Amino acid sequence: MPYRRPVPADESVPSPGDDSGRGAGARPVPGHDPRVQWVVSLAVVVAGIVTIRPMGFSGLGLAVALLFAVNSAALLARRLPEHRVSPRLALVWLTLGVVAAAALIGLSSSGTAYLFAFFLAGHIGYRLETRPALVLAGFCSLLCGAVLYLRLGPGHELLPWMLGLAAGAPVVIGIVNRSQRQAVRAAIEAAESAERAARAEARTAVLTERGRIARDVHDVLAHSLAGINMQLELADALIDTGDLEKVREAHTKAHGLVKESLKQAQWTVHALREDALPLRETLTAMLASSGHRDALTVTGTVREVPAQAVQHLLRIAQEALTNAARHAPGGAVDMELAFAPASTALRIRNRPATRRAAQAAGSGMGLIGMRERVALLGGTLTAGPVTEGPHQGDWQVEAVIPQ
Question: Would the pTM of this model clear 0.70, i.e. be above it?
Answer without folding.
Answer: no
